[in-house]
Amino acid sequence: MRTSFNKLLKPSEQQEQLPLIYPLLISLLAGGVFSFALAPYHYWWLAILSPALLYATLRNRSPKHAALIGWAYGFGLWFVGVFWLYTSIHVYGDTNSALSVLLIALMAITMGLFTAVQTWVYRRFFPETPLTFAPLWVFFEWAKTWVFTGFPWLFAGYAFTERFLDNYAPLFGIFGVSFVVIILACALVEIIQKRVFWIIPSAILLIGAFAASFIQFVTSKNEMPLSVSLVQGNIPQDRKWLAEYQVKTLEIYTDLTSKEWGRDLIVWPESSIPMPQTEIQPFLNSMAYQAKNMNSAWVTGIIYIDPKTSQQENRLMYYNSIMASGHEAEGLYKKQRLVPFGEYIPLSGLLAWVLPAMQNDPSMAGFSRGDNNQHALSIKNHKLGAAICYEVAYPNLTRRNAQNSDFLITVSNDAWFTGTAGPQQHLQMVQMRAKENGRWFIRATNTGVTAFINEQGQIVKRAPMDEAIVLRGDLPAMQGETLYTRLSDWPVLIFSALLLLLGLKFRPRKIDVSFKSRR
User: Function of this protein (predicted)?
Assistant: First the structure.
């Protein structure tokens, strides 16, 4: 047993190294191309090639050099991968082009530190092997879900949504898929370097993905499907919060809804009602009355002012919320995870001069965070686990909301990022959450992508983007729980920790990081 592990964890042979500038440029390029593995491009093989190049460039490097190489990779990853933020900062934030690019670069510099620390730890404490590189990758992806409230974007596993390896998602979630992706990426490097043993674990992982496709955790309930109408109002972001456009917004949504009464569920997207419930109670009462008379449930995104907490805090407490009313419908869900520069401005007092237009946007006024473990929405004897916009990027949050639910529902406003890859990447995350938890996802958005996603993470129906339209579907309620819903991320995190402990135990007493540089 010890001999086997020693063989797996054997450090690389000493070899001449290229000057540092070359691996820095290679890793920068590798990070930059990674996002093309994701939606809307779907060049999934880049999710193998990109981390494989990073793994190869770290060969025999000192911890200091490894940190620089990792930082270069992380900068390329984030600068290219979330450049869609440019639209919200420049177009809707009224910030000039140069400053907008600079802000994205500063964000990429900061987020790149995750990979810098990851690669430094890898070369400082562990032998060079996929069995230490992949677990560290998983831990740092996981850290992006909670460090400084988290920015859980650009995970390796998302590239394989609806692409074979996602069969691991109901078992171990997105981090399980990412683990397999990184093992295969590193194994590719090892095989090219004639360590052919890595063909065996690679084959086992691929066979495992095939076998996982036959495991059935959930089944549909023997009930009539839920008839659902999703209303996409297509309100431009630059008009959405204008006082003079509020009535027009309500007219657009009510006109689109007028032919949908009688359906089981009608859903309006995030903040489709552009004012707090305290300012529009007669309208809400009228809509609830119509819904009740027509045996429909009505769910809408709305700004909610909580009178109880406002009194306790001695100030108005705003919540980005989903409210259910009408026939056999009740519930209020308050968003738990707020997106920086999408709903509130971090350090807004200091950044007022940077994003002047956003300072007068009510959606940026500083929403409060909803409580953990809120009740699901109740719709016609069904439980709907809710998520608002950015929250679906958090696997464990969506998992908690999915427990004891029949469906999952998310509302969003991606008009901030119209014409970019952002909305498509966002949709891909919803697909993964559906697959992880074995539930249909109902997704209503302002400008797109509005869609119905089944329990396998497949888009069954989607509305065209940037059109005012209603999307209709009949959805079966699901029962049962996936392994991931029951156990969360713990299996893959514990397994990764054990691999790292083995790496520490069987590593050389002193990892040789010296090398000869070519002049």
Answer: Catalyzes the phospholipid dependent N-acylation of the N-terminal cysteine of apolipoprotein, the last step in lipoprotein maturation.
Tell me the whole-structure pTM to 2 decimals: 0.91
511 belongs to a structural domain: no
Cβ–Cβ under 8 Å, residues 169 and 177? yes
Query: What residues does 479 pair with on adjacent strands?
Result: 219
**270 has catalytic annotation:** yes
Q: Would you give the end-to-end CA distance of the chain in angstroms?
A: 43
* Domain encompassing residue 413: 219-475
The residues, ordered by sequence, that sit 6+ positions from 103 with a Cβ below 8 Å of its Cβ are 85, 89, 95, 354
Instruction: Clarify whether 144 is annotated catalytic.
Output: no
Lowest mean pLDDT among 139-153, 218-232, 363-377, 434-448: 363-377
Residues 108, 138: contact at Cβ < 8 Å? no
Catalytic residue among 334, 335, 380, 383: 335
Whether 334 is a known active-site residue: answer no
My answer on whether 195 and 244 are in the same domain is no
Q: List the catalytic residue out of 270, 436, 455, 481.
A: 270
**Total domain count for the chain?**
2
Q: Are residues 212 and 224 in the same domain?
A: no
Residues 30, 60: one domain?
A: yes
* Residue 454, domain CATH: 3.60.110.10
Among the options 389, 435, 455, 481, which is catalytic? 389
At residue 516, does pLDDT exceed 50? no
